[in-house]
Design goal:
repeat, alpha+beta, phosphoprotein, six-stranded mixed β-sheet, NADPH_Oxidase/PX-Domain, NCF1_SH3_2
């Protein structure tokens, strides 16, 4: 729009300053030389020639509106959103509906990075979460630093700790272990590679609650892959990053929230899981005895309940008029 208004129809001769998106893992010198804030970008725009900086489109963009002078209330503030990326890393451009608003978290303890792709943290550091990965490793940025951080070392600023964890799904999802793990804590499970289990609770810190028969326990999600999928890509992530540490293993953790969300104990998981599986067995039709089958055959046809057909809901009048033919519409119009 602006090159045309300025009398230049060639996009290659654009004189509007370019605001590049940040590149992950670039050097600190490149990050410092980039126009990193909107303030710098707007200042560069206003210093352009008058035919650009005083054009109607530019002035309308910076015009103060009545809503800009009102301070937001609690009901008007929308909670920032981040997107949980799948383990396979595949994404579709159709899923992008708007700008991603990064959520702010705080470090509860010091963390020393174990590789160049990770980022070190000090207690109290405030970071912005770019990607929440199911493995429990979150990609964060802090000023000019970027890297992977264990989610267990972070807590949200605006809500109690671990308030975003989903609810348990006791129906379970079938997964296969792609790497053996020996339990370190009492509430964890030890499994060999290639075992089939069920995931009943996917926690954001990368330690999921799994079920093997009637036994439940924590297990690193990085060592799991959905049944029937290729495990090559999942194993490549294990080589680059191991399982993240658990919150219970962090020493000298300092939270700013007086009360945090209490996690369910493994006894609660086990009781709820056993109750769910027993209820599911009762609902499944079991094998009938020969006597019951004979009684059903001897039952008269008139006494057997007939299945009732499902009656679809009647469409609205507007929908009927929208879907009817043009001939019907003309007849209805003439009748009215």
């Amino acid at each position: 729009m602006f090159p045309i208004e300025a009398g230049d129809i060639n996009p290659q001769n654009r004189i509007i300053p370019h605001l590049p998106a940040p590149r992950w893992f670039d050097g600190q010198r490149a990050a410092e030389s980039r126009q990193g804030t909107l303030t710098e970008y707007c200042s560069a725009l206003m210093s352009l020639p008058v035919k650009i900086s005083r054009c109607p489109h530019f002035l309308d963009f910076f015009r103060v509106r009545p809503d800009d002078l009102k301070l937001p209330t609690d009901s008007q503030v929308k909670k920032p959103e981040t997107y949980l990326m799948p383990k396979d890393g595949k994404s579709n451009t159709a899923d992008i509906t708007g700008p991603i608003i990064l959520q702010t978290y705080r470090a509860i303890a010091d963390y020393e990075k174990g590789s160049s792709s990770q980022m070190a943290l000090a207690t109290g550091d405030v970071v912005e979460v770019v990607e929440k990965n199911e493995s429990g490793w979150w990609f964060c940025q802090m000023k000019t630093k970027r890297g992977w951080v264990p989610a267990s070392y972070l807590e949200p600023l605006d809500s109690p700790d671990e308030a975003e964890d989903p609810e348990p799904n006791y129906e379970g999802e079938p997964y296969v272990t792609i790497k053996a793990y020996t339990a370190v804590l009492e509430d964890e499970m030890s499994l060999e590679e290639g075992e089939t289990i069920e995931v009943i609770h996917k926690l954001l810190d990368g330690w999921w609650v799994i079920r093997k028969e009637d036994v439940t326990g924590y297990f690193p999600s990085m060592f799991l892959q959905k049944a029937g999928q290729d495990v090559a890509q999942a194993k490549s992530q294990i080589k680059s990053r191991g399982a993240p540490p658990r919150r219970s293993s962090i020493r000298n953790a300092h939270s700013i929230h007086q009360r945090s969300r209490k996690r369910l104990s493994q006894d609660t998981y086990r009781r709820n899981s056993v109750r769910f599986t027993q209820q599911r067995r009762r609902q499944r039709p079991g094998p009938q005895s020969p006597g019951s089958a004979l009684k059903e055959e001897q039952q008269p046809e008139t006494e057997r309940p007939k299945p009732q057909p499902a009656v679809p809901p009647r469409p609205s009048a507007d929908l009927i008029l929208h879907r009817c033919s043009e001939s019907t519409k003309r007849k209805l119009a003439s009748a009215v």
